């Protein structure tokens, strides 16, 4: 299995990781514009900024600093019809990013599909809208847990055990990250494997753990390199973001190959994927 994952990753993994790094920067702005539009539709305009902040907590500080102001400025500047026009364009743009991940999973499982292009795009757009709504719900749940924690602290200071349990809400971003990745892997896995008993969670778990590991270690590694800004100048922040998204993309490729390797059994060999693997 390890050989299968390593060979599959080295075959096209670095190319896919590079594509994901570029597309991540390109689609970040459209995604949060879509989030702001959906939040406004539900009468919760501030949730767009909260969604941004929730995402920035899962990236290294340098990347968060680079992205926070420009994305916030874009969200503040887009209102009314301009916001909805940006949301429509954003949905189409981010859908392309989703299709790239679908392509990675197809490559890992060794299948091809004859399903019409428009059908995939509509499915990707539906996933984007659902992910925004889930993110908003997760943020609201975290706010509720924080309020409960403060209530227990102020009213029942002796209830330290209950406070400790509620304080587990601090790991909510990590849990939400795993949940989002699991939904992504499950939804984009080719149907012949999605509908089988092949596990989907190992790839999502590896990708989430790798993501958090990169977030924790990248600043320390860059700190040992000295003045890397002398090499890239004013583009140093952008390069850090690209390196981060490249590493996360590589982890996603490994996760896809891991799931495909676990699905490869004598009964479900990938040597004969069929004409329509989807």
TrEMBL record:
Residue ranges of coiled coil: none
Membrane-spanning ranges: 20-42, 82-101, 122-145, 165-189, 201-222, 234-254
Main location: membrane
Location of the protein in the cell: Cell membrane
Topology in membrane: Multi-pass membrane protein
Highest taxon in the source lineage: Bacteria
Record's keyword annotation contains Transmembrane: yes
Keywords: Cell membrane, Membrane, Transmembrane, Transmembrane helix
GO CC list: plasma membrane
The protein's name: Membrane protein
């Amino acid at each position: 299995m390890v050989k299968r994952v390593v060979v599959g990753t080295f075959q096209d993994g670095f190319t896919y990781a590079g594509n994901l790094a570029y597309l991540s920067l390109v689609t970040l702005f459209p995604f949060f514009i879509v989030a702001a539009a959906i939040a406004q539709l539900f009468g919760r305009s501030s949730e767009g900024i909260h969604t941004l902040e929730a995402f920035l907590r899962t990236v290294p500080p340098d990347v968060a600093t680079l992205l926070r102001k420009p994305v916030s400025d874009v969200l503040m500047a887009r209102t009314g019809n301009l916001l909805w026009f940006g949301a429509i364009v954003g949905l189409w743009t981010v859908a392309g990013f989703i299709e790239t991940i679908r392509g990675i999973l197809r490559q890992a499982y060794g299948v091809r599909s004859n399903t019409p292009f428009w059908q995939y795009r509509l499915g990707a757009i539906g996933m984007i809208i659902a992910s925004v709504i889930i993110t908003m719900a997760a943020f609201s749940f975290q706010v509720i847990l924080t309020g409960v924690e403060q209530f227990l602290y102020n009213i029942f200071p002796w209830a330290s055990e209950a406070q400790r349990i509620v304080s587990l809400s601090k790991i909510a971003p990590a849990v939400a990250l795993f949940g989002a990745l699991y939904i992504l892997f499950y939804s984009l896995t080719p149907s012949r494997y999605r509908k089988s008993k092949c596990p989907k969670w190992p790839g999502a778990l590896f990708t989430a753990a790798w993501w958090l590991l990169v977030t924790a270690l990248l600043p320390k590694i860059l700190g040992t390199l000295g003045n890397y800004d002398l090499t890239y100048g004013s583009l140093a922040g952008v390069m850090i973001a690209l390196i981060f998204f490249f590493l996360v993309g590589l982890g996603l490729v490994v996760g896809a190959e891991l799931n495909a390797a676990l699905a490869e059994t004598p009964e479900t060999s990938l040597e004969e994927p069929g004409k329509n693997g989807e």
